[in-house]
Structures are given as structure tokens and as C-alpha cells.
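Review box. Two proteins, two foldings.
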Amino acid sequence: MKWRIGVEMLGNKKTYTLPFKFDIPNYANNYGPSKEFLEKTFIKPWIRFIKRYLYIHLRGQNSLEIYNILPEHNNILWINISAPSLGDSLMDLSSRTMLIGRKVDLFTDNKNSGLYKDDFLFSTVFTDINQVVERKYDLVVLDSYSTRSIDIKVKIDRLTPFVGMFGYYNGPEVNRVLFSFHQMNNLLGYVKTENELNKIARTSISISSDDQDLIQRTKLPSSFIAIVIGGEWNHRIYNKWGCVIEKLISKDSNLNIILIGSDNAEDNAKEIFEKFANYNIFNCVAKFTFKQTTEIINQAEILFCCDGGLMHSANAVKTPIIPLFARLEAHMQLTESICAFPLFDKRDVNNILVEDILQKYNEASNFVDNHPLDE
């Protein structure tokens, strides 16, 4: 009985308690100690904790978990396979900036690997265990203690110590960028204060000179705004960009607007492009890679977008954004180092009024006019 209570308390702490001492935006306040909460919200994560806890012991890894990245850990492998999207990957790996000066390799999924080609930190990016099994590391950084992550770690290097980013944490939704930075700060021994950390926390991305040159050869206008069309989740796909564009060009018929996005937006972009064929609309949807599109965003004065991967890439290159959020509020995705003029609806971004977007555009334009890029 005492053993059971002890494991339950351990699971509750490791699953729902942030692993660092500073607070970050999360949805913990949405949960209460009600019977319904305990039954619906606690039990599944607790079972997951027990499964992971026992699996780490089963694979002989329990004695290798450590809680600090030490100065002698100069040759590191970071395993990140839990990020379900490009945006999540950028957020989860954002704190790698704090490891500059060390040699760090990355093992990740194929779909995310392209983000880190020519990266400022990662020396080599692996997607196949066979590519890395012969290498030796001082330390492994695990994204989480999922059985899949533990399996990969064991296959690559059974005897190397490891630290966890999310570890056992499986609690309320958190701001993933701030979680990454604060956990890395914790692992490094709190080398930065809370205020210092919050001011630098943002995603990062490296754009190769080849990609920069390719976009340069595209001969885009010298001044333009960009709009991300499409998306993966219906409640985060804004269907009234055409109305926004109509209002924008009614006030400035010379305004240059570039449409960007992936192949799920091709039909919508074509429709908008044809509707405004007599204006300065440029359709770049599904014509470039993610990082090449990021270079377009880098050159834009302002980016209109919904919550998604290209929003996080805009944050990496410090382009001011007008992001539309639904269900997940702005403070859960943005940090104070980001220049953003957000709008939010509890259910669907399509409930956000065109007039409100135009008001945010006025605010963003005034900011850009008063803050030249070279400042």
C-alpha cells in the first residue's frame, strides 16, 4: 500500500510538475482537484508514467539518468522524435542556442530533418540509427521518456548518460519554446535569470546561402507583406484572406502582397491570385521549400498568418507577425522577444473579424515605420 501511494505521488509530481523552478504559461489553472479531473485527466498520464518508468528500468537505463549538463559534456547527441510537426520541432529545439560552443548532433524524424540542414549548432543530422551506432557521445539529450525515445537511445548508445527535456512530463499544455529554454537553463545549472531567459526565448532557423540566393533570383518586390494561406487544422485555417486583401488594396492599390503556404493551399491561392489579377499579388504557395519560404518571410515587412509552422519560422527571423489563434491562446505560443499583434477566438479563427485584422495591420505598420530593420 505504501509502495503504491509512493509511486502515485512520484508519478503525479513528474507528470504534472514543471521540472524547473520558474513558471511559464500553461493551462494548469484549467484543471481542478475534482473527481472528474482525477478520473479523466490524471489516470491516463499516470498509466503512461508507470509504463515509461518501468520501461526505463527494464532497458537498464534508470542508473544513467542525470539532471545536469556539465562542462565536460562537450560531445552531445540530441534525440528529438516526439515533435509532431515542423512548428513543434522548432519550438522543442529552440533552446539549442544555449549549447553553442559544444559539439551537438541531432537524431530526428525524416520530416523534420530538413529544418536543421546547415544548422548553426547541429554538426550532423541523423534520421537512421545505422548512421550513428558507431559514434560515441558524452551525453544524450532525450526529448521525452517515451518508449520509442528510450528504444532509440539504447540502440544508439546503451551506456551513455542521458538528460530529459520533457522527461516524464505529460501535464497541461505549455508554451513549448519557454519550456525548452527553461528546462535547458535548469540542466545547465541556471546560468541565466528568469528575466534574461524570457528575453531571448524564440525559435531559431539557419537559412543557407543557396536558399537566400535562390529567393534573391526570384526578384520579389523590394517591399511587401506576406500572407500564409491554408493549414492543417480547420479551426486554424482562415477562409477570409480574400476579404482582407480586398480591404488592404482598397486603401493602397500599390501594395505588394505575397501569398505563401504549402500544397494544401494551392487551390485557395490560385483563386485569390485570379481574383486580384490586376493588383500586385504574387503567388508563391507550394513553390519553395520551408526554409526558402522562411527567407521570403525574412524579407517581408509584416506576416499575416494563423498558428502554424511558418509563424514559428517568422519568429526565428524576427519578422513582425499578425497571428490568428483559436483554442490555444497567444501567450501559449509566443514569447516577449517576439514582435506580434495577435488575435484570438475560443473556437475558430474564422470568428475573427476582418476589421479587427485590419486594425492590427495598422498597429503593425506603425510599429514597422517607427522601428527600421537596422535599429
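Next protein.
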Amino acid sequence: MADQQVTAEEVLLDVKVADASTLFKFYLNQEKKILGSVAVILFLSLWEFMGGALSVYNPIPVLRVNPMFMSAPSLIAKAGFDLFSSGEIYNDLYVSGIEFFWGYVLSVAVAIPFGIGVGWYKKLSYLFDPFINAMNATPRVALLPLIIIWLGIGIPSKVGIIFLGAVFPMLINARDGVKSVVFPSTVPFILTGLRLGVGRALVGVLVGELYAATAGIGFMITVAGATFQTDKVFVGILVFAITGVILTAVLDRSERRFDKWRPKVGSAT
């Protein structure tokens, strides 16, 4: 009886949707994007009302934000335009891009074959699992002083911290994928590791450049923060955020293409 009631409700819902207006159908199809866009617009509008040009119309003094400490969307946009139009940011983008590229590529080159080998051969797993698990549990930031002592304050030390940050998520996902299933079902696990590695690599870029650097987006953030240029700080943060979103979306789409190879829960291996 309950199943018949649920079926009737589903049919009724389908009828309502079928009879709905074109505008409502568009909303139903794009609900995620519409609600997300509305939330972002409302957030930016409120932020601008509190600290930007619109703050003069804000009747509540306690809700006014000093741009020196928080900036505002319009000020951030202006700072970003000035940095790109003047070319001031391009060298920092180049340095951070080089560091990210080589750190990430080296992580992939080491983590995937080594992770597959450790997952495939039990003796290798017995030998290396204690070190892998220990290093994965260790905050890589704690190793940064040693890396700088060994590699200096130039690009190689940043590549080293990015490598250490990104290599273990990739390695562990490749290892666990091989242990659980056989190829090609390991591919989704490997792609998951690559996606997780992007975030760790970007954190490595930022942390390395905050700690000791002479160029890079992290260095730009450090200098801007020390001189209370919060608009430039947010520009740097947005560069990292947009880069992470784009790269994660690309890898996530690739991961979904191979999702049919992922073993189902409870299925026989």
C-alpha cells in the first residue's frame, strides 16, 4: 500500500512538472547553478555594502568594515585590474606556476608507479608502508626549514615542499586502489589521488612562498599583508582559489569519465 502511495505521488509530481511553465522547467533544470549564483551575488553585495563604495549608505556603523583590514569586492577588482594591466603580477604568476608545475609533475612521476608497485607486491608494502603512513601523518610544513637548509630559498625548495605535499595522496590512492581491485578499476583511484594532490600542491606553493621567497603569488601576499594592502592579498587568494577550482574541475570530469570502472560497494573483486 505504501509503495502504491509513493508511486502515485511520483506520477503526480511528474504531471505537475510536465504541466509547468517553461520558466519553471528552466529553474528546475538549472536549480543548482541559480541558487549558487544567487548566494554568491548576495554575499558579494553584503560585503560591498559593509566595506565598499556602498558602505556610505550603511546606516549601522558596527557593520561598516575598514577597507584597510578587510577590503571590498570593488576594491579587489580594481587592484586585480591594476596588477594585470601594469604587468606587476606576471613575474609572480610565472614563478608560482613553474614551482607548481615541476612539483606536481615530479609527484605524479614518483607516486603513481611507486604506489602501484607497493600495492601490487606485498614485500614492498611491508617494507615501505610504515614510512608512507608516517610521512602522510606528518605535517609537511614542519619539514620546510630542513628543505630550505638543503635546497636554499629559491625555486628548488618550493618544488620540494610541493612534491612532499602532493606525492602522498597520489601514492596512497594508487596503492590502495591496487590492493582493493585490479586494473583498469584502479584508474578512478589514481585520478582521485591526482585531484587531491592539486589542493596539497597549491598549499605547498603558498606555504613555501610565505616562509621564504623573493617572488611568487605567496610572496606577493606576504608583502601586501605586511603593508596593509588587503585588496592585493585577496587578489592573490583568488588566484590560488581559481586555479584550484579549474584544475579540480578538470580532474573531476576526467574521474567521472572512468567512474564506470570503479568497483561497486559489495561487488566481488
